[in-house]
Amino acid sequence: MRDKATSGTSDAGAESTGEVLAAVGPRLRRLRKDRDVTPAALSEATGISVSTLSRLESGLRRPGLEPLPPIAEAHRVPLDELVGAPPVGDPRVRTEPVERDGRTFHPLTRRPGGLLTYMVLEPRRERRPDPRTHEGYEWLYALSGRLRLVLGDHDAVLGPGEAAESDTRVPHWFGSAGDGPVEFLSLFGPQGERMQLRARAGRRAEGES
């Protein structure tokens, strides 16, 4: 016996499907009349009998995959338009920038957990490095300006197109090199996740079997 949650979900899905199918008939009739096509002419173009077309338009016959493609082709419309398929969701990531410690973070991902990506803008300023540690792994990619990175005993400056990665359990700090604003990408992932670089395999070294 199904539990209530499963039963409720199934009933809701069936109801939604029924509503979609019930709307197909009126849509077929409206489309045909808007194009000033008679049932006889549509029957001749599709090979579907006039009586079947009438039952489809009135809802007396449940629309299936067999009659709909030739009707869509005759009207020169996508099949999605006949069945009223929902539009594809907007693929753009819409998130609000966050101001933190004088920096502007633009989130580029919205999936909770896993790899988080930000475009970071930092104004021109001179700051004394204050290295800190935390769990995770981070990649930095300089877009414009000069990004200073202090990591353990290393003190480096990244220019546009240069990247660095670090285990954030090592004391680290990054910011403007002090001679202008800097724009960079920050990718932060959970501990143990490393950047995987894949390259096409070349020829084996001479003498290697």
Question: Quick summary of this structure?
Answer:
The chain has 209 residues and is of the alpha+beta class.
Structure description:
With about 210 residues, this protein is α+β, with helices and mostly antiparallel strands. It contains six helices and nine strands; from the N terminus they run ααααααβββββββββ. The chain has a six-stranded antiparallel beta sheet, with no helix packed on it. The chain has a three-stranded antiparallel beta sheet with strand order 6-5-8, with no helix packed on it. The longest helix has 19 residues, at about 5-20. The protein is rod-shaped and about 85 Å long. About 10% of the residues are buried.
Fold blueprint:
Layout lengths: L3 H19 L1 H11 L4 H8 L3 H9 L9 H8 L3 H5 L14 E3 L2 E5 L8 E7 L14 E8 L2 E5 L2 E5 L4 E5 L4 E5 L5 E8 L20
Helix pairs in contact: 2-4
Structural class: alpha+beta
- Approximately how much beta-strand content do the residues carry? 15-25%
Q: Could you describe the largest sheet, including whether it forms a barrel?
A: 6 strands, antiparallel
- DSSP strand count: 9
Please give the alpha-carbon distance between the first and last residues. Answer: 61 Å
